[in-house]
Structure formats: structure tokens, C-alpha cells
Amino acid sequence: MTAFPVRIPRVSVAVAEATLVALLVDEGSQVAEGDPLFVIETEKVESEIGAGASGRVHWSGTTGATYDIGTEIGVIHRE
Fold first, then answer.
1. How do the pLDDT tens digits run along the chain, 79 residues long?
2. How far apart are the C-alpha atoms of 60 and 5, rounded to whole Å?
3. What was the pLDDT predicted at 1?
4. pTM of the entire structure?
5. What pLDDT is recorded for position 29?
6. Could you tell me if 76 and 53 are in contact, meaning their C-beta atoms sit under 8 angstroms apart?
7. Using alpha carbons only, how large is the chain's radius of gyration in Å?
8. Positive or negative CA dihedral for 44, 15, 12, 64?
9. Alpha-carbon dihedral of residues 43, 46, 47, 48, nearest 10 degrees?
10. Which pLDDT score is estimated for 5?
11. Distance between CA atoms of 68 and 33, rounded to whole angstroms?
12. Which of 5, 12, 25, 26 would you call most buried, defined as having the most Cβ atoms within 10 angstroms of its Cβ?
């Protein structure tokens, strides 16, 4: 089993951090690559982020928290 990290993405060059607004997939759920995974907010703009791999999701991030770009907020375990 390999793990694919889920990170806060850079959605703009000028943005250094983002708030995790919502997790769209429950802990332990199966996702397919490209499925909507979570929502972040940067400078009052919300962005829906898709899964970068297929597998089972495990979260370490907390909704409402602000994270630096690149921070790992979970993993997708590919089986």
C-alpha cells in the first residue's frame, strides 16, 4: 500500500496560506482521482480541490484551521 499526501495547494502566486473550509469526503472513504476532496479559502475566494489519486482518505487537518501552502492535511492510501 502506498500513501499519496494531500496538501494545501498553491492557487495563486501571491497566497502563502489558506483556510480549510470543508472536507467533502468522510474519514476512511474511498475516492477516485479527480473527485472533489476538500474546499479551501484564500482572500475570501473558495476553491474546491480534487483528489490527486484514487484510494482511501485519512485526514490529519482540521476544518476552520489556517495552513501554510504545502502543508499536509491528510493522505490517500492506494491499495
1. 799 999 999 988 889 999 999 999 999 999 999 999 999 999 889 999 999 999 999 999 999 999 999 999 999 999 7
2. 11
3. 74
4. 0.94
5. 97
6. yes
7. 12
8. negative
9. 150
10. 98
11. 24
12. 25
Provide the β-strand partners of residue 45.
Answer: 42
- CATH number of the domain where residue 61 is located: 2.40.50.100
How many structural domains compose the chain? 1
* E strand segments, 1-79: 2-7, 17-23, 30-31, 36-42, 45-50, 55-59, 66-68, 72-78
Range of the domain at 28: 2-78
State how far the Cα of 28 lies from the Cα of 42, in Å rounded to an integer: 27
Q: How far is CA 46 from CA 10, 16, 17, 30, 40, in A?
A: 13, 15, 13, 24, 6
